[in-house]
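### Sample
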Amino acid sequence: MIKHGFLAAAALVASLAGAPRPAEAGASLDAIKARGQLVCGIHNGIAGFALPDSQGRWQGLDVDLCRGLAVALFNDPEKVRFQPLSSSTRFTALGSGEIDVLFRTSTHTMLRDVTLGLRAITPYFYDGHGFMVKANSGVTKASEMAGATICLIQGTTNEQVTADYFRSNKLQFTPVLFERTDQAAAALQAARCDSFGTDASQLAATRASMPNPNDWTVLGERFSKEPYGPYVRRGDDEWFDTVRWYVNAVIEAEEQGITSANVDEMKATAANPNTRRLLGVTPELGQALKLSPDWAANVIRKMGNYGEMYERSMGLKTPVGLARGPNELWTNGGLLYALPMR
């Protein structure tokens, strides 16, 4: 399985090396503005991050972050085209210029950041690898799964994490690889696998979508660090900066208590210099990014701050029902921390 992962990574590097590149390096922001539309790579279907609703409209945290970036650029959340991508095609699609930015449950790792011709930007969601099993299986921890058949998604870090855990603990297992999460979930329910291994947030989303969620349990152990963040192509610092500081802005808004409901009042009355900068009362942040002075205020007004996006997509009142945990602000004991916007 490790050999398989190495060969897959090598093939991906080779494919990106030969893939067509944008016509002008460093011109992404101008090209997107001229096109009048952002093209955003997202998951091809997982509740909480990216999933079409009954009307066919994409919903989820990654989707909202894409729409918010469109607001920052155009003051219009509809000026975005979503490109659903599998785990095995997402980085190739970005490297070839098929999409402008990837918001797709993608872990930041060193080798992805330095070998694929792409840049990982900044984390917006913290997760960890886990396992889901039948509730009546009697399994309470991964070490009890010796000899198990485990469903995994091809092209993810979860392949290597699972192999590393079982190998280091001298346990045997049989991997069964799938292209999509729904395929793995179907195989698990059909008893083709004893367990499904992937990030805990995606296990929670998969469990919530099953006909009988109570038949399944997500084990409490976590076996990796999986910080999700957007990716862009390497060599375009201006576009990198735009996406980086956009993500920071929605986190900063929550830190400052700025919401979609109070943003206009805060903009009109705030004396705090940090708030005035963020909301464009003083224009230097927009000028630095070649955006309008009120770009962040527009995002917050139309899409909300990070906390509003999270609760709308996967919070405790949603079917996914995932507590913030490490995705709380640092001031509440979590890991989310906006870099200073000054």
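Residues 1-25 have pLDDT under 50 and may be disordered. This sample (Amino acid ABC transporter substrate-binding protein) is used throughout the tutorial notebook.
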